């Protein structure tokens, strides 16, 4: 009952999204609600204590531990997506430079640098401008 | 506070390793950490706002849905992500026990709190830190005891000292038996001129040995003069520097003078310096 009302509100809030997304976001609540049930025995990488600490700092009183796990999972996914995008940037960069000294065609050791991270974050709407050195 | 950030950093490292990175720049690491922290805090904030907007206090799943929609975060693949194969699960973080104060140097058991002190306050330190036991007996301050102690000490000192002198120095005995040790008396040393002490009062008592040495040379000189006067008729080859030669020339004198000469001889025989380096130079005999 409450979920349905919130789904209606979702329609109104996602005005920025496309029409296709609107149809999907209508039912975004249900899969998540179902997924919540499956979270009982799942342990995300980020411990519950840490997540609940940050949520409590924000004022979110998590009575259900599954909610906390959902938040931590969402955060994990977010970071993983950014990391994957940055990795693709890194691979594109390393493949663009024909380096004969490296034994394999691709550089085996990938290092996450600001050069790769900045464009990856830009796609998610986070603009990062850091000075290359500290004055 | 910093502990959560540290743990979050570890989790971030695990996530990046999962993604395929082998190393991460420090700046990039810090940036990602800030992103993660800010993500969670804004999720909590927005979810709380939606929850309160709906007139509730406890958030519900729907609030989270609204939050993610509001923040523009797409969670469509979350189920697939949750079931990914290569997910790393960090070892469960145990609650670290508070570092116990080092009990190596503990001496004695700590006293429990008295009843008026609540239990959550820190415990008492080791009893030796504030309980003082004197290492010596308190001195007796009673007048009677002190007088008695002083008197006993004085008597003991006198007795011990006289015994010591009697056993190491000259003794005289009151009894005619030979056993001197019944009741040894410290022998008194007769002063050659006892009236001098009465005639010349001193305000400082010097060492007795020094006094004896001072008094001994004068008798020697006097007696030598007497000797020379007695032996003027006899030929004497003796030099003046060897006084021991004079006494043998008058063996007959049994008078007190002779005894005193003998005494002087004994004393004067000690006079020649034992140290060969300090003796007078002797001319060597002529080589034949």
Automatic annotation (TrEMBL), chain B:
Coiled-coil stretches: none
Alphabetical list of InterPro entries matching this protein: BTP (IPR006565), Histone-fold (IPR009072), TAF8 (IPR037818), TFIID_su8_C (IPR019473)
Keyword Transcription regulation belongs to the record: yes
Location of the region described as Disordered in the Swiss-Prot/TrEMBL record: 208-288
UniProt keyword list: Nucleus, Signal, Transcription, Transcription regulation
GO molecular function: protein heterodimerization activity
Entry annotated with the keyword Transcription: yes
Family affiliation: Belongs to the TAF8 family.
Name of the protein in its database record: Transcription initiation factor TFIID subunit 8
UniProt source species: Cloeon dipterum
């Amino acid at each position: 009952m409450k979920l349905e009302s919130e789904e209606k509100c979702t329609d109104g809030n996602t005005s920025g999204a496309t029409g296709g997304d609107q149809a999907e976001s209508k039912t975004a609540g249900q899969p998540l609600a179902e997924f919540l049930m499956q979270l009982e025995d799942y342990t995300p990488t980020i411990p519950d204590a840490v997540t609940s600490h940050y949520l409590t700092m924000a004022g979110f009183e998590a009575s259900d531990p599954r909610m906390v796990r959902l938040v931590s999972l969402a955060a994990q996914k977010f970071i993983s997506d950014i990391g994957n995008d940055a990795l693709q940037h890194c691979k594109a960069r390393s493949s663009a430079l024909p380096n004969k000294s490296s034994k394999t065609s691709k550089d085996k050791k990938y290092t996450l640098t600001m050069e790769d991270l900045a464009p990856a974050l830009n796609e998610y709407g986070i603009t990062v401008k850091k000075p290359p050195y500290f004055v | 506070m910093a502990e959560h950030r540290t743990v979050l950093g570890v989790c971030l490292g695990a996530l990046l390793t999962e993604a395929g990175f082998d190393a991460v720049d420090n700046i990039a690491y810090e940036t990602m950490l800030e992103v993660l922290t800010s993500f969670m805090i804004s999720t909590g904030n927005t979810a709380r706002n939606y929850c309160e907007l709906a007139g509730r206090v406890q958030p519900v799943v729907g609030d989270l849905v609204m939050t993610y929609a509001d923040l523009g975060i797409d969670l469509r693949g979350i189920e697939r992500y949750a079931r990914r194969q290569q997910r790393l699960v960090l070892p469960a973080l145990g609650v670290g026990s508070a570092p116990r104060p080092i009990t190596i140097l503990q001496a004695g058991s700590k006293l429990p709190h008295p009843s008026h002190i609540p239990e959550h306050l820190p415990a008492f330190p080791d009893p030796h830190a504030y309980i003082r036991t004197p290492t010596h007996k308190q001195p007796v301050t009673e007048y009677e005891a002190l007088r008695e102690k002083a008197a006993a000490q004085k008597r003991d000192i006198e007795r011990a000292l006289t015994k010591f002198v009697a056993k190491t120095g000259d003794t005289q005995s009151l009894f005619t038996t030979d056993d001197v040790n019944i009741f040894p008396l410290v022998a008194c040393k007769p002063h050659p001129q006892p009236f001098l002490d009465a005639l010349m009062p001193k305000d400082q008592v010097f060492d007795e040995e020094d006094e004896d040495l001072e008094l001994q040379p004068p008798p020697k000189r006097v007696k030598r003069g007497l000797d020379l006067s007695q032996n003027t008729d006899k030929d004497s080859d003796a030099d003046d520097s060897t006084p021991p030669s004079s006494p043998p020339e008058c063996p007959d004198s049994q008078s007190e003078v002779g005894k005193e000469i003998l005494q002087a001889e004994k004393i004067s025989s000690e006079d020649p310096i034992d140290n060969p380096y300090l003796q007078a130079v002797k001319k060597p005999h002529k080589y034949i």
